[in-house]
């Protein structure tokens, strides 16, 4: 059986997922067979060009006609387009893979997760937290689950970018509250919250995030519209910080920013337990810094050995992987789940859980006080 | 004229300052002449040994007899012994140099700063924030004051140690609220707050810290008393985190901990401005990471060139300095100020300002909401 | 027109090139159209499996029937199989792309380069020095050619691996002089020599390598044959070192090893000129360390900006590439040259030039004295 | 008993050793008592100033009157002044501590070592290879001697400085063959050779260096004389490289340079054994990178724990030491040996052994072939 795939969105994320799908047969021979059957968008010409380049056999400008015709629906549009098509697909029994953050608002995310639960386990609804699929992150999870760091006491997550440090950088939908929900918080913070939940969120580690204090800040209030003389208002945050307390009492710090000069895509996670520590940075994603086993300092592990997660599919030790490989691993897991009727994680509940934390951060910022999650 | 110095305290800090004083003549020939005339403590035998080793010509077990007899009084005792002798000295017109944090409580710090102001500018009252005197930090300040980082938008300060990560690490006065005031917050946080104030606190940079959200946590509730079977309660924090907002709207994050496995004395400061960034780490204190001048990445500057701050007193480029050199620079500046009747910074007002921030963090933690500083 | 490609070899290098070819249409839309038409090998079953997985439409166990039937012939077999099929293809007017080192011996390399020259410029004969196609390396070349490092005075190249550090690691053709020519020297040294030639070999930089001193060493004399009780002799070097002198008087050091515990694929290049320095390491291939423009320290440049070499074909800044991307860039350039009838570099003359240096290193080792290259 | 010390030389090295002596009582209470009794030089005024600053009670412009009057004689003059006063002192039965390299030529070094052997073990003759006394280096030696790296197979030593990269940097005695013997080779190479001998030179590790191939190069042929219009010829090397073979078959690479832009005092040692590896860099002298115990990557060890070599004399963990501390440890060991009548290493035989290697490198460079050491 070949899974027929429909994809909404053909820019950055469209390209990343199309590439991932195209590479599965050569490197993951046990992945299900798929066909990129329809690419969905609004601008017919751009759409048609993209379909050619990304290997789709047809195009459509109407997602309503697609969601119940395909075997799997990928929703890779901007945040404000996540809800409606995803729900329609799930209601039609079509497995959905939706980009993160799950939705611009908690309400929408809630509705989407509810729909996914109703659709049932054999209609997987995945949320695209691709950084779970970095080999070094999966390796870190192995260490954590084996208890090698002891009791988790402190975590730190930050995601630093600099593409808005120039006040003349142009306005985009990502600067608009209506379309994006929030700024650095939703775009970057959702990744960080999910990674922390993935790594330390289980009951025998730190558990869920229990309460938060948040702070959002916008440094540049309006930005020029590309190709014109106008400016438009920035209605989202350029940067956020947060403090966390986990169920087990562990403390955490979060930060995300689009104005950190010199940091392009610097997503770092640091975890301290009673028996060890670890550090990860996305710009050096093949490496993991680990302190354990009575060692005195961090050991720099190049996570490219044959028995490291996913690595046996690729190249010999030391032949490093790139950012895009996270999408290939993610698509492999998601499409395998669809084909096998298995559950997939991260799912819409994970997307919702991240959203709840982000929403609590935003409310905390407005109220000037800690906010507890239910 | 030779300044006669009396010093209360002969352990870690006593040794660090005695060493600093002893080295001034060879490396800072224009420093005032001094004599280490009396060392103050309680345990006569230990005191006498220490005086021999640290080069003091006499000892005393009664600070009240010392503070008005010497030209300068160093108060290097535990936090709860800061207030009384410092005030007595200042009231006697004796310049005082007091270890940090200025006091266990804001009230005491307030009283000390008030007394120092009354004593007047020609009776310097210094607070021992020695990290201001790292050459790389002074170099960073030069860059910041020259506007090379543009408008300050984000700062991060964290101070990670691991000496309490072992639950069996013994109890000490540093674990006791009465004697220490707080734990990681006061001990480590006071350094971090002061460094941030020093670097970005001026009006044309970020200005003062305006409001804070704080979080304190104790992971190990009681600890064994050394040399016995008993345990005693830990009544201070093992770790704290905080969020900051500065006068100019810049956002900040703070963290201090004594339970970060693998970090011995890891004090890092990171600053992002609209035109550049910088990073400093105490464990590599000869280095500064700087992004500026349209560069694309951080430049690793070894701050050991002849025209770098203080370096002409020492060795040729690349011959690195150590932690103790911060004390020599600090003592040079303080004793020169005393000899010349000049003002000295960081002074008790700086000590108080740091204390106000720490106090606000503590109150925020108790109240679960942001606290504004007046 | 579609180029029909025949490939000899279906293991590590076969997979790397098949992947590269498969990805061209999506990321390099102006690359020529190609068809992976025939895969050549000896073991029919393995071959057939590989052809399926790697996307070839047919297989052959006889390269003689292939080399004149295809539009392009890739020779990815072991070193001792490079000469005969490559020459046959070139004599048939078929462009050839051959893995490195060009041949086990200088004589064979010479004959191959001679044949390539006779075939003429419109029959490109490429030699697979893929590390020329790392964006950071191309960026370094831009800097060097713009004269930003001044007069080149010192270079250092080393390639450290550890897969033979265990004396029980099994014997393979790479340990055999007949089949491989040499050990670390040919396998690793050919890459290093080519990168140095590429970066500083032009006349206005350091020029060609003029004389060398070499040293080869074998630490483990025999190794177990996999799946049996026998051992076989290791007849090649485990490690080599060399000193170089370039035409302009610059000095150089080379080293390659398969027994450097802790180094998986650590290929580093360091260059010092009269006005700057640079450093590159393959395990962090997205980064380049550069000292220039009157800076005081190395600047860590993440070579992932839109106007960095090849990067506009991929992802936004900070989304790092992997090892395999070097093959995609290399195939893009080679196949474009074939389609357009352009010359391609690195070609067989470059392969020969590297071989001449390696041969001189080997002779120097035997003779115990410096050896000049003609 | 108080040892009366006479010191020839009051510039860089004079200051470094005077500082070391001055600090012993506070930090090494069991060090012998000493008195800096006479400082020897030629320029009376400068000498007198220096004596004041460095704590000497008298001065002399005639070393012949000093060497037999003091209990210990430090020879810290330029290389060409090492031989005569050192020999005179030893012949008078006065222990000598001489700066490195031991002499400008092998012949002089030989004569000095011969004299030292004749003077006997109770007249210690130390050679100032201070980098043996870095705690991280001593820690490395512990690991090596415990066999933790297995059989030593490869070593690398390089010492990079940049103070002559500017062709206008002024001429000094260090550029003159008569006075200095050689350039980077003697000045930097002597340190590197000694560290390698110290770390791996014992019989059960790599043993002595058995043969070498050397290469010396001068990039700037003449330099301006400070304060005038003249230039003088540079008659020594700006940079050298060498290949080594040790008794046990281990291979090595050496390099030293004064023209490596961006490197101030970058002395690195790297060692690979059959069971592990280690790396050290002088610019981060508190750290050691170690791979062992079945770890996968290098562990960054901050060698500042209480039971690390010499550290218990200083500060708590993480409070880093500087370059000058190596002199304090060195003086402590040497003066203790003098006081106790013990042998001291590194001694003149070690100085000679380093010189033999450097001489062999120089002869190899002249002859264009490997040179064996007897």
TrEMBL record, chains A, B, C, D:
<dbReference type="GO" id="GO:0016491">
    <property type="term" value="F:oxidoreductase activity"/>
</dbReference>
<dbReference type="GO" id="GO:0000166">
    <property type="term" value="F:nucleotide binding"/>
</dbReference>
<dbReference type="InterPro" id="IPR000683">
    <property type="entry name" value="Gfo/Idh/MocA-like_OxRdtase_N"/>
</dbReference>
<dbReference type="InterPro" id="IPR036291">
    <property type="entry name" value="NAD(P)-bd_dom_sf"/>
</dbReference>
<feature type="domain" description="Gfo/Idh/MocA-like oxidoreductase N-terminal">
    <location>
        <begin position="4"/>
        <end position="121"/>
    </location>
</feature>
<dbReference type="Pfam" id="PF22725">
    <property type="entry name" value="GFO_IDH_MocA_C3"/>
</dbReference>
<dbReference type="Pfam" id="PF01408">
    <property type="entry name" value="GFO_IDH_MocA"/>
</dbReference>
<keyword id="KW-0560">Oxidoreductase</keyword>
<dbReference type="InterPro" id="IPR050463">
    <property type="entry name" value="Gfo/Idh/MocA_oxidrdct_glycsds"/>
</dbReference>
<feature type="domain" description="GFO/IDH/MocA-like oxidoreductase">
    <location>
        <begin position="137"/>
        <end position="278"/>
    </location>
</feature>
<dbReference type="InterPro" id="IPR055170">
    <property type="entry name" value="GFO_IDH_MocA-like_dom"/>
</dbReference>
<protein>
    <submittedName>
        <fullName>Oxidoreductase domain protein</fullName>
    </submittedName>
</protein>
């Amino acid at each position: 059986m070949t899974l027929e795939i429909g994809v909404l969105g053909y820019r950055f994320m469209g390209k990343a997922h199309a590439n991932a799908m195209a590479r599965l047969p050569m490197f993951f021979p046990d992945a299900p067979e798929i066909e990129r059957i329809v690419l969905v968008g609004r601008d017919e010409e751009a759409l048609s060009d993209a379909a050619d380049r990304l290997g789709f056999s047809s195009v459509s400008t109407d997602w309503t006609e697609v969601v119940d015709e395909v075997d799997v629906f990928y929703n890779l549009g901007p945040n404000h387009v996540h809800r409606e098509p995803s729900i329609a697909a799930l209601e039609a029994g079509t497995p959905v893979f939706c980009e993160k953050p799950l939705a611009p608002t908690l309400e929408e995310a809630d509705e989407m997760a509810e729909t996914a639960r109703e659709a049932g386990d054999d209609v997987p609804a995945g949320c695209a937290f691709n950084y779970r699929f970095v080999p070094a992150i999966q390796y870190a999870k192995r260490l954590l689950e084996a208890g090698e760091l002891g009791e988790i006491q402190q975590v730190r997550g930050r995601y630093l970018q600099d593409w808005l440090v120039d006040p003349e950088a142009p306005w985009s939908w990502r600067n608009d509250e209506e379309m994006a929900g929030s700024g650095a918080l939703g775009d970057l913070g959702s990744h960080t919250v999910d990674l922390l939940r993935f790594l330390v969120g289980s009951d025998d580690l730190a558990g869920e995030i229990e309460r938060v204090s948040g702070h959002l800040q916008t440094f540049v209030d309006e930005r020029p519209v590309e190709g014109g003389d106008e400016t438009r208002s920035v209605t989202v945050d350029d940067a956020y910080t947060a403090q966390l307390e986990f169920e087990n009492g562990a403390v955490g710090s979060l930060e995300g920013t689009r104005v950190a000069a010199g940091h392009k895509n610097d997503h770092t996670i640091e975890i301290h337990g009673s028996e060890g520590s670890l550090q990860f940075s996305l710009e050096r994603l093949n490496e993991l810094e680990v302190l354990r086993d009575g060692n005195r300092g961090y050991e720099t592990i190049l996570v490219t050995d044959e028995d490291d997660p996913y690595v046996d599919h690729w190249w010999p030790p030391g032949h490093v992987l790139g950012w895009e490989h996270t999408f290939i691993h993610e698509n492999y897991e998601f499409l395998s789940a669809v084909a096998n009727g298995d559950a997939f994680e991260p799912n819409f509940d994970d997307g919702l859980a991240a959203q709840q934390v982000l929403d609590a951060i935003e409310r905390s910022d407005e109220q000037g006080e800690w906010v507890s999650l239910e």
